Amino acid sequence: DQQVKQNSPSLSVQEGRISILNCDYTNSMFDYFLWYKKYPAEGPTFLISISSIKDKNEDGRFTVFLNKSAKHLSLHIVPSQPGDSAVYFCAASEPEVRLWFHQGGKLIFGQGTELSVKP
Amino acid sequence: GAVVSQHPSWVICKSGTSVKIECRSLDFQATTMFWYRQFPKQSLMLMATSNEGSKATYEQGVEKDKFLINHASLTLSTLTVTSAHPEDSSFYICSARDPLAGQAYNSPLHFGNGTRLTVT
After folding, report:
1. What stretches in chain B show pLDDT beneath 70?
2. Which of A66, A92, B33, B44 is the most exposed place for a label (fewest CB within 10 A)?
3. Residue A10 in 3-state DSSP?
4. Mean of pLDDT over chain A
5. What is the rounded radius of gyration, in angstroms, for the C-alpha atoms of chain B?
6. Could you tell me which of A13, A4, A46, A1 has the C-alpha nearest to residue A114?
7. A86 at the B interface (CB within 8 A)?
8. Nearest residue, CB atoms, B108 vs list A34, A43, A102
């Protein structure tokens, strides 16, 4: 049962344009969401996160939008740069799991979307 | 952010042997570290939570006797894959939470660079 889904395995965007990466989730208990960027043979690098009390969080070129009613979040990168080319994972966690069982370490990841930004 | 260092970055071993992977927190102390695994083209999955000075807690379906975790100090956790088999070939990644977050459990995890294990 895939609780976090990234339905697009790949995305190709022209440099300077906007990249929009999408993520859907099924568990209504999730209240904290994160985006990670990953290069081959490296660990994921944290990009940006959002709590369920917000619907938008912005950090430089990266903005994450959360639509709780649709159980959907998206990552916008604008303008896209060739160095943004990587696999992007969304992840989610629920409060009870963080507090009592896994001390915040259990993130449920999507399958990833490979972004290619062409010069 | 917090820096997590992992060693080795890749290892090839023969079936039946054991492999140890080290995870270190640099410039901060981590009472808890988390071991993830990623199979090709799949999501990262939490395997176990490593607790300094006490037993690790394992996710359902992860064999604790096969994946031995030792968190002997506040800066080092090790994962030993015992009697490795080809199906254990995977990308193993450790992580820890940013210490500046304190007890804020809704804070991001920071990951090491991972270890690519290939069992022949």
Report:
1. 1-2, 99-106
2. A66
3. strand
4. 92
5. 14
6. A13
7. no
8. A34
Cβ within 8 Å, pair A104-B107: yes
Contact assignment for A105 to B111 by CB distance below 8 Å: no
Q: Number of Cβ pairs closer than 8 Å across A and B?
A: 77
With tokens 């022209």, the residue in question is A14
**CA-CA distance, A40 to B111, in Å (whole number)?**
14
Q: Which residues of chain A have a CB within 8 Å of the CB of B112?
A: 43
List the structure tokens of A51: 């709590």
* Nearest chain B Cα distance for residue A21, angstroms: 16
Structure tokens at B11: 């290892």
